[in-house]
Design brief:
The complex is a heterodimer of chains A (421) and B (290). In chain A, strand 11 (359-362) and strand 12 form a beta hairpin. Chain A has 13 helices and 14 strands. In chain A, the strands form 4 sheets. Chain A has a 7-stranded mixed β-sheet, with helices on both faces. A 3-stranded parallel β-sheet of chain A has the order 2-1-3, sandwiched between helices. Chain A has helices at 2-32, 50-69, 92-101, 114-117, 121-126, 158-171, 188-203, 222-230, 242-255, 272-278, 302-313, 326-343, 348-357, and strands spanning 37-43, 78-84, 107-108, 131-133, 148-150, 179-185, 207-214, 235-240, 261-266, 286-289, 359-362, 365-368, 381-385, 402-406. In chain B, helix 2 packs antiparallel against helix 3 and helix 3 (64-91) packs antiparallel against helix 8. With 290 residues, chain B is mostly helical. Chain B has a domain at 23-222. Chain B is globular. The mean pLDDT of chain B is 91. Helix content of chain B is 74%, strand content 3%. In chain B, strands 1-2 form a two-stranded antiparallel sheet. The chains are: A alpha/beta (421), B mainly alpha (290).
């Protein structure tokens, strides 16, 4: 009797289970429409590049919230899935593998920085994923991947376009400079920048009188600046990361560096905390930048974005103004999101094709990619610091302190030459 | 490109840098050089010192060096407390070498992560009137940003040296490394002595941190750049010798500076550590080692 009852119950259970599974299968497609679209990436939230990485993440979360407020992408909410790569290139392949195999993200974007973008390339290439990238200098030169899209406006030949403006400005002066000193940190980005500077100098028949690199953990830059001074260069091009940029500027001031143009590829001089601390030591330096609050660069949406960013960033130990990386972190997701909406799909091939042929409207203006995924036309600004007062952060919130000298379309003032201290 | 002016300035810059390296290494010279405690977290404590200087300097405008000196007693007590834990967990049971090292690795990571959680990862800098100024004597420049840390470092080293050789506790610290049992027979408690020494080592980190942030920007992971250098300086100077450590620090700074000026900065660490290896090959106990 018991046996019969148990077998009957187990059969009833099996039928109920089967019915439940069938029902779930029928109901599931409707629920799937609410499943989020996952965008995966690693970001430097600790380590040397974390200052900008954390700021970028804030911008990306603002984009996600903006998009979700308008109904998401393809009617589905957007979810960011990310991990801290700690500015360690070796951790990137593992993180992207996890994002793709375990978290099963629908789309990927890159980490911040040349050193952190390159290690992810083989993985995204193998899976043929579209790969919007955030500030990598020449990261695609060797790979030549056709689904790589770099939001940094270096230009079609990134290594040389990066410093072209600096050298073009120098050669416009009278008398023309004859000698150049090139110094760079021993790190991927700075070496690429120095290589481009070297090419530009050789093209312009400038004599390179100093061409050396330094270990990134260098404490004192006075011997380096002094050695540069001993060669009497007309212009000095530096490729450096934030702590070395500060060291070089302070050392240049202490040594009394006499040259006609100084700057070029110094990362860090765009960060609010460093600008405030260096203050007047910055005056006269001509350095790269991508967006400054000058009247020629008032793109639609940029001011609202910065207001949102500044409200969130206030007590987070990140750049309080957010002029350097955040607008571009917002834009590289804008480009991806707009492509998804336009092609109405998550198909990587369709997205890539769309991104190649479209001119996007973003908070950083019109964005158009060339064949190699770099910008079709350079918008690497050369900016000169002017009238900077000591210990004042608010002065950088508005125009007048970072004058755009190059390219001509975005120029907001003329160069003060030669470099005076 | 070689000139007397360039050489003189390179030498001076190297000595000033070396003085700073001495301030960074002196805590480890006491703790590792004399007590054989592998405190790999020492640079992390220096970063805490740097942040202390940053917080009080940015809020109240106090001079960073004064903040470092004022914070030293607090760091002393923190160091003593940490030694207590280390002793109870590892030294007493004789497991100090590997487990103790793991303990200090853990301390280092905890310090770094707490700093990141509380202060974020943006670079921090301090303001002081003398940062950016430079004195000139003949054709030699003395940037105050490097000169002030040098003077403080020399004073600190001299003070520690005098303390260790003149006071009872100081001599007891030197003694406990040599012969612990004999020290007990002399009526001193070796555990309390070592606790005092460890506290002293961490107290120097408060001052070294203030000097570090005067010289350049600091963020939580900067400490890792100094781990290699501090251990190299202590070993090169000879375990247990403060004066040896100071000379070694000056040599390291000097070699880095002269090589950076005349050969190229990328050679500086290689040559500097080459000098260390050569010295150890010729004098395995270090310059003034026992």
């Amino acid at each position: 009797m018991h046996l019969f009852k148990r077998r009957w119950m187990s059969r009833a259970g099996a039928v109920a289970l089967a019915a439940g599974v069938a029902l779930a299968g029928w109901v599931a497609p409707a629920a799937h429409a609410q499943q989020p679209i996952k965008i995966g990436f690693s970001m430097a939230l600790t380590g040397g590049l974390a200052g900008a990485g954390k700021a970028a993440l804030i911008a990306m979360e603002i984009w996600r919230d903006d998009v979700n407020k308008k109904g998401g992408l393809l009617g589905r909410p957007v979810q960011l899935v990310y991990y801290d790569d700690a500015t360690q290139p070796a951790s990137v392949p593992g993180l992207y593998t996890k994002l793709l195999e375990v978290d099963k993200v629908d789309l990927v974007v890159s980490a911040y920085g040349t050193n952190l973008i390159a290690p992810a390339m083989p993985i995204v290439m193998r899976k043929k994923l579209v790969f919007p990238a955030l500030f990598g200098l020449g990261a695609n030169e060797e790979f030549k991947y056709d689904r790589y899209f770099q939001i940094m406006p270096a230009g079609p030949e990134p290594k040389t376009d990066w410093s072209k403006g600096f050298f073009d400005l120098a050669m416009e002066q009278n008398p023309k400079p004859k000698t150049v000193a090139i110094v760079a940190a021993d790190a991927e980005f700075a070496l690429n920048a120095a290589a481009g500077a070297r090419t530009n100098a050789q093209k312009l028949k400038l004599q390179i009188v100093y061409d050396k690199t330094y270990p990134p953990a260098t404490t004192d830059f006075t011997p380096i600046v002094r050695a540069i001074q001993a060669t009497n260069p007309d212009i000095v091009y530096v490729g450096s990361y934030p702590p070395d940029s500060v060291g070089m500027v302070k050392a240049a001031h202490e040594v009394g560096l006499k040259t006609k143009m100084f700057g070029g590829g110094m990362v860090g001089l765009q960060f609010a905390a460093i600008q405030k601390n260096l203050g007047p030591l910055l005056n006269g330096i001509v350095n790269y930048d991508f967006w400054v609050p000058e009247p020629t660069l008032k793109f639609p949406g940029i001011e609202e974005f910065l207001a949102k960013y500044q409200a969130v960033a206030k007590d987070k130990g990140v750049d309080p103004l957010g002029h350097y990386l955040p607008p571009w972190a917002y834009a590289y997701l804008e480009v991806l999101g707009q492509s998804v909406q336009a092609t109405k799909s998550l198909d990587q091939g369709k997205l890539a094709a769309h991104m190649h042929k479209t001119t996007f409207d973003t908070v950083v203006g019109k964005v158009k990619f060339g064949k190699n995924g770099e910008w079709a036309q350079t918008r690497t600004l050369q900016v000169q610091f002017r009238d900077v007062a000591p210990d004042n952060l608010e002065q950088f919130a508005g125009p007048g302190k970072r004058i755009v000298l190059y390219p001509k379309e975005w120029k907001s003032g003329n160069i003060v030459y030669p470099y005076k201290q | 490109m070689f000139s007397a002016d360039l050489l003189a300035n390179a030498v001076v810059a190297g000595l000033l840098l070396g003085g700073f390296y001495a301030a960074v290494a002196i805590g480890l010279a006491i703790v590792f050089g004399q007590l054989d405690i592998v405190n790999i977290a020492h640079p992390a404590f220096i970063i805490v010192g740097a942040y202390t200087a940053y917080i009080l300097n940015s809020r109240f405008g106090f001079d960073p060096v004064l903040i470092g000196v004022a914070a030293a007693p607090i760091f002393f007590f923190a160091g003593a407390a940490i030694y207590r834990v280390y002793y109870a967990a590892f030294e007493r049971t004789g497991q100090e070498s590997l487990s103790g090292l793991a303990f200090f690795f853990g301390v280092m990571f905890i310090i770094e992560v707490v700093l990141i959680l509380v202060y974020g990862v943006d670079y921090r800098l301090v303001q002081a009137d003398y940062i950016g100024q430079s004195w000139r004597i003949g054709f030699v420049d003395f940037p105050l940003r490097m000169l002030v840390p040098f003077i403080v470092a020399v004073t600190l080293t001299a003070g520690v040296y005098a303390y260790l050789s003149r006071t009872f506790t100081g001599r007891a610290i030197q003694a406990v490394a040599q012969d612990r049992l004999a020290l007990q027979l002399m009526g001193a408690n070796p555990i309390r002595i070592k606790q005092w020494a460890f506290g002293l080592g961490i107290a120097t980190a408060a001052i070294a941190g203030a000097l570090l942030i005067i010289i350049g920007p600091v963020e939580p992971s900067v400490g890792r750049q100094y781990i290699g250098r501090v251990f190299a300086i202590v070993v090169l100077g000879g375990m247990g010798s403060i004066s040896g450590m100071f000379i070694a620090a000056l040599i390291l700074g000097l070699v880095e500076s002269v090589v950076a000026t005349f050969m190229g900065p990328s050679w500086a660490p290689a040559v500097a550590f080459g000098v260390l290896l050569l010295t150890l090959a010729l004098r395995p106990a270090g310059l003034f080692g026992r």
